[in-house]
Every structure is written in structure tokens, then in C-alpha cells.
Amino acid sequence: MPDGPNPQIFLWAPTISAFVSFINLVFVALLFKFNRQKDRTDRKIKWFQELVYSPNKEVIKNFFEVLHRLQEKTKGNSVTDNDTRIALINEAKAARTTFLAEFVDMLGPLNEKLKRNISEEVENLIDDITKILDDDTIHDFTNISPPKTTISSRVRRSKVRIFNELFGFE
Predict the structure, then answer these.
(1) What contacts 115, CB < 8 A, 6 or more positions away?
(2) pLDDT tens across 36-91, in order?
(3) CA 68, 73, 75, 79 torsion-angle sign
(4) Distance between CA atoms of 102 and 89, rounded to whole angstroms?
(5) Alpha carbons 70 and 17: distance in angstroms, whole number
């Protein structure tokens, strides 16, 4: 039976203590880095919400409502008149112009890629609506085949894509 503590333990104690201290220091540095990065992201999102999204909720809402109303304006109507088609196309383009000027252009200083992606989606949406409305073979816009090519379905798809871009923003 040993008489006292092993003297070799006392030799290793400072090394073990230094190693544990180093590991703690690494964890503290990682936590600091993570929290700092999270704070920056949170601050960016807060500014985005306060300066861009919140003041422009109505602009976003109105844009999609105007485009959904295009489908309503064609419901049950036989839209064969070119003037009516042109008026509907111009309404879609006016909504696009307003949306881009009042909302999307404000995204540029925050994130150019976000602005570009949303601008492209809006342009593609309006191009698709224009093609649908400009198709002389379609007279009843509620029974387009396949149904996924209706104005409302195309607007819903773009709305989801735009919100995915906005909420994916960091």
C-alpha cells in the first residue's frame, strides 16, 4: 500500500492544467466569433425589416393584388378585343414598374444579388403574363390548359419565390 500521493502526478498537473486552459480559451474564442457573427446578421435583418420591408408591405401587397385581379378581370369574359388585352398588359407592366421602383430598388444597397434575383423573377412573371394575355388562341383565361399556366397560378409561384428570396436574406 503506498504511503502518500504519487509524485509523478504533481509533475503532470501543470501540463494538464495548461491544456485544459487552452481548450477553454479555444471555446471562448469560438463562442465570441459565433456571437459576433450572429449579432451582425441580426442587426442586418433588423435594419432590413425596419427600413425596407415594414414601410413597403403595402407596395408588396398591392403588386400581387393587381396581378391577381388581372385573372379576375378575365374570368368568364371572352377577351378577344386587342384593346382589352393591351390594357391588361399595360396594367401588369405599370404594377411591375411601381414595385421595382418603390421596393426592389431599395434592396440594392443592402444586397445586390437579392435585388437582381427579385428583379429577374418580377421580369419573368410579367413576361409570362404578357405571353398569356397576348395569346390570341385563349379566349377564356380561367380554363387554360394546363392549369398551371393561368395568371393566378403564375403569380402565386412568383410570390413564393420572391418571399423565399426575401426570407432567405442574411
Answers:
(1) 104, 105, 107, 108
(2) 888 887 887 787 788 778 888 999 999 999 998 888 887 665 566 778 888 889 99
(3) negative
(4) 20
(5) 73
